[in-house]
Design brief:
about 230 residues; alpha/beta; seven-stranded parallel sheet; 7 helices
């Protein structure tokens, strides 16, 4: 099996790549060029089952070109769209347009770019699986207080994934989403040092859910948005 992981240098992306390789899959690590050192270190750690692709910029053209290069080497049978970001900390009426636009671009536009590039080949082959990473805020938007732009961008990404899932279901392609609460990452620990980390979602746990959704074991699951809340 050959998988693509976007946002591969991050905590969840790298955890998923390790999980997939440990299960015998080949993985292409896709991330922005400025993350090159971390991606290359991960690729070296994972060995011959891993390859890397760099995006000079997160644009529809760059995604299409990168995914075409991967497809030229081997068909992409599954993809996890983990690339994204968070910015918040203020009520919506105090949130600058720049922050709003950055959240839409990072969390919604990149999902469109990836789906638009991935789906034609999967539909033509009549097989494939994609997982989008949303947020608990999608189902509980009130938990996105002071992060309304982020919440809206993640909700849009999950809605797009579910609508697209219905469009491609008859072609043998599945699209699902996970909805994690706070992830236990070094960045989140640094930002919330007084929190009870044991209540957060371990990256290995979320990676396991994604790996399941990508696998044949989930062949009858499509259009789902799976809560991965931990005890947060």
């Amino acid at each position: 099996m050959s998988f693509l992981v976007t946002g591969a240098s991050g905590a969840l992306g790298s955890a998923l790549a390790r999980t997939l390789v440990a299960r015998g899959a080949a993985v292409t690590l896709l991330d922005r060029a400025q993350s090159h050192e971390r991606v290359e270190a991960l690729r070296a750690e994972l060995g011959e089952r891993a390859a890397a692709e760099a995006l000079e910029a997160p644009t529809v053209e760059a995604y299409a070109a990168a995914i075409a290069r991967v497809e030229a080497r081997a068909p992409i049978e599954g993809a996890a769209l983990i690339a994204g970001g968070w910015a918040g900390g203020a009520p919506l009426h105090e949130t600058d347009l720049e922050v709003y636009e950055s959240m839409v671009h990072a969390n919604l536009d990149t999902v469109y770019f990836a789906l638009h590039a991935l789906l034609p080949a999967m539909v033509a082959r009549k097989r494939g699986s994609i997982v989008v990473v949303g947020s608990r805020n999608v189902e509980r938007p009130w938990t996105g207080t002071r992060s309304a732009a982020y919440t809206a961008s993640k909700a849009g990404a999950v809605a797009m994934a579910q609508a697209a899932a219905a469009e491609v279901l008859e072609h043998g392609v599945r699209i699902n989403a996970i909805l994690p609460s706070t992830m236990d990452t070094p960045q989140n620990r640094a930002g919330m040092p007084k929190a009870d980390f044991s209540r957060w979602v371990a990256t290995s746990s979320a990676a396991g859910v994604i790996a399941f959704l990508l696998s044949e074991d989930a062949r009858d699951v499509s259009g789902a948005a799976i809560p991965v809340y931990g005890r947060a």
